[in-house]
Hints:
Chain C: It comes from Caloramator proteoclasticus DSM 10124. Chain B is mainly alpha-helical.
Amino acid sequence: xxxxxxxxxxxxxxxxxxxxxxxxxxxxxxxxxxxxxxxxxxxxxxxxxxxxxxxxxxxxxxxxxxxxxxxxxxxxxxxxxxxxxxxxxxxxxxxxxxxxxxxxxxxxxxxxxxxxxx
Amino acid sequence: xxxxxxxxxxxxxxxxxxxxxxxxxxxxxxxxxxxxxxxxxxxxxxxxxxxxxxxxxxxxxxxxxxxxxxxxxxxxxxxxxxxxxxxxxxxxxxxxxxxxxxxxxxxxxxxxxxxxxxxxxxxxxxxxxxxxxxxxxxxxxxxxxxxxxxxxx
Amino acid sequence: xxxxxxxxxxxxxxxxxxxxxxxxxxxxxxxxxxxxxxxxxxxxxxxxxxxxxxxxxxxxxxxxxxxxxxxxxxxxxxxxxxxxxxxxxxxxxxxxxxxxxxxxxxxxxxxxxxxxxxxxxxxxxxxxxxxxxxxxxxxxxxxxxxxxxxxxxxxxxxxxxxxxxxxxxxxxxxxxxxxxxxxxxxxxxxxxxxxxxxxxxxxxxxxxxxxxxxxxxxxxxxxxxxxxxxxxxxxxxxxxxxxxxxxxxxxxxxxxxxxxxxxxxxxxxxxxxxxxxxxxxxxxxxxxxxxxxxxxxxxxxxxxxxxxxxxxxxxxxxxxxxxxxxxxxxxxxxxxxx
Lengths: 118, 153, 338
């Protein structure tokens, strides 16, 4: 059941991205930026939380989930430590993804070379 | 007179371009994005359930999922597979966190030939940098607003 | 007004220079295309034994020049000038390619119009009496163009149907006052035309008005029409840009539908090779002309052609600053006998 929900929720979020890509001339980079920002806003006003509860990985794996984690982490830290939490919370909550991307990016760059497309 | 004539020509031409534009295969694109995007999330769910099964607390499991998914995206990019998935799936492989990883790893690999500092190090964020800038900045704003609202409670 | 000028933008040569030799080198994908048998060399590997895409592109251009000279009885030191260009910043591929030749060098940037731009200037130098042997050469490489203008190769993006595929290839032509053709009889130098297209994934549409403008100007200046040519062929408009050009020219009363084509369509099999709207890049018209068309003229299958290489004069900076894409097109009329 988890899997079916993840599939439907995740697929739908990607579908929205595809519609934006085909119907507007938004570049992938702009779509990523809008999605992460949308995730932060939806997370902050509490709309994304029920989506995560329903779709689990289907909602956290797509980029709005990254935005949601940023917002949720920030709010948690503000509650705990006050204003400084606005600066510490977001990155703390998403630290694993960011550090992994930088580290694995570097490793892959050492190991692999780009290949010509055909 | 000459000027307005030129404007008219431009307008006419732009309409002509719209009329002649080949339509992308919209339904196929959407289906591919939905299926591939959904499938990547299913893999994410599998990873999540796996670590939950190992006894990782629910609030920490996101770290594991993010790390593994980012690794998968990075590795498939390194192997030269992810760009082919992207060609087929479009947003289906751009929007998941594996796509975020791809957008960091692809320039890192590409600009290796310009060296490891100004090539790999500096170019790594040419595509994904804005995601961090806007994501983190907006979360800071959310934090500040939340703090102010709490002051008045 | 110069005595050899006719009309507003055209030169009719008094002593039409001959194209005495050409050479074309194509990448692996181009080597699988319909023109595969016409290229002098087809690369097995996009890196051409080099470490970077840029160096590979440069080596292709250097080899194209060497092969074009090899077919002649003349030596490198007999060459008076080389006019060369490519798509890379500061003309990296051309500058490095000519580094080892001891030939006076003019570097040109006309985006994908560089082939006919260099042929035009080379012909003027020859007909003007400033040179006896001049080389015109250009190159492009899919991988070096992608990383400069678009995305890293491994980035998983989707190409829209209007997008084109930068040709990996280099072509060189030796243009001389001595020789028995094919002759360059006229050149029509294009103006920059910009009809406000901003989509860098639709360069065919951005360049079509420039191509049509130059073709119509050529007809007006020379008094010729499309019926005077066996073939009118643009550089890299692709399917989208080609249809637009046909339509604009038709509105002015010239129906070119029977003898008009585009190098970007000729070089790939559009149904099989996943190149969307067709080929593009400096190398596109370079390998199609230096490989295929030149041989067709030599064998007598074509007697008189009008070659119009087309360029989209955008840069990554201009695109990011929201500028529309200026187009350019230069026409060269080539004839088997005069």
